[in-house]
Amino acid sequence: MKFVLTVISVVSAFAYVQANLPAAAPCNETLCSLPHCRCSTTNIPGGLAPNNTPQFVLLTFDDGVNVNNIILYRQLLRNRVNSNRCRAAATFFVTHEYTDYTLVNELYNEGHEIALHSISHQVSMEYWRDANVNTMMREIGDQRSQVAHFANIPVNTVHGVRLPFLQMSGNSSFQMMASSGLTYDSSWPTNKYLDPGLWPYTLNFRSTQDCIIPPCPTGSIPGPWVIPMVSWIDLQGLPCAMVDTCYHHPHGADEEGWYRFILQNFERHYNGNRAPFGFYVHEWFVRVNPGLRFALERFLNMINNLNDAFMVNAKEVTDWVQNPVSVNVYRQRSCRNPLRTQCSPNFCGPLRSPIADKNYYMQICTRCPRVYPWVNNPLGL
Q1: Contact 222, 37 (CB under 8 A)
Q2: Closest C-alpha among 273, 27, 58, 8 to residue 160
Q3: 136-161 tens-digit pLDDT
Q4: 0.85 surpassed by pTM
Q5: Cα distance between residue 282 and residue 72, in whole Å
Q6: Domain 56-364, CATH number (from 3.30.70.270, 1.10.10.60, 3.40.30.10, 3.20.20.370)
Q7: Kind and range of the H or E element at 172?
Q8: For residues 373 and 146, is the Cβ–Cβ distance under 8 A?
Q9: Which residues form the signal peptide (predicted)?
Q10: What is the average pLDDT value for the chain, to the nearest integer?
Q11: CB count, 10 Å around CB of 212?
């Protein structure tokens, strides 16, 4: 009954937000101040000088977590620490289908961030472009409780969203986030603000960010943060939001070429305004390009040994932006130590699909669901 009442209250909140959503006005820095509001700008939070600002590196992977890609994740990330002796972390934007939730639990317990990438990951761009708030709630808002339940991780550690194919849906996804308490979106590329890069900001006021895959939000939506996906520049000068969308890149086996390619994009941030540097990629692309695989490891080793660069998860970036401190103060902070959770692996299936004539099998950390979990029934009740 409590779950049903919660759903009803959330739907009511959606209706209220939609009906009363004002258009965003140009940002007024007098009225928009940290920790809860920030204009879209390339200015460093807190007015810090670049050489006094931590350079954050965001390594993210999209889609399902399973026995195929966990091998690379373990090889690349296990026991990795930054120069301040705190654990280095990646962010995983997870889809539901074909995900092994026992491995999601493993990644969480290794100190990585688990974020949301939708339940269905529909291949239709129009589906995401036209999605309303209720659709976003069923696809992503409900996924928060789904991944927490089946991976047995605290629901309040799930903060972030990346929309499938980076297809924006106007105000809808941000309204859903504001209503369901999600912290940040990392779906919105910028090709305009590369040098200097665009820092994270809120949507209390109108965004000045370029809209690469419309529709982009236009309303005033306090609460969620935007972590702009500052595009890389490929070998022919073309922008690419994710590494695997860079059309002109080094040969797959060219480790030195890949390393130089990564560094030239990183140095634009590090030698500039130190906006967070994103290494956004799908695991399969790293796996099929061995040069990239080894170049990425070299790059992360370099980052982990720099005194002013830190490989962190996306939530840690928004936390810092809300309370910016100098790199020396940041280095002295206590390391985060998330509460570890147990997982008693349970193999479930066959579970009938609600949308197709097929069966699914699941590896989870809880009791088996009655049917295969999906949109409108995220827990398979």
Answers
A1: yes
A2: 58
A3: 999 999 999 999 999 999 999 999 99
A4: yes
A5: 11
A6: 3.20.20.370
A7: helix 172-180
A8: yes
A9: 1-19
A10: 94
A11: 17
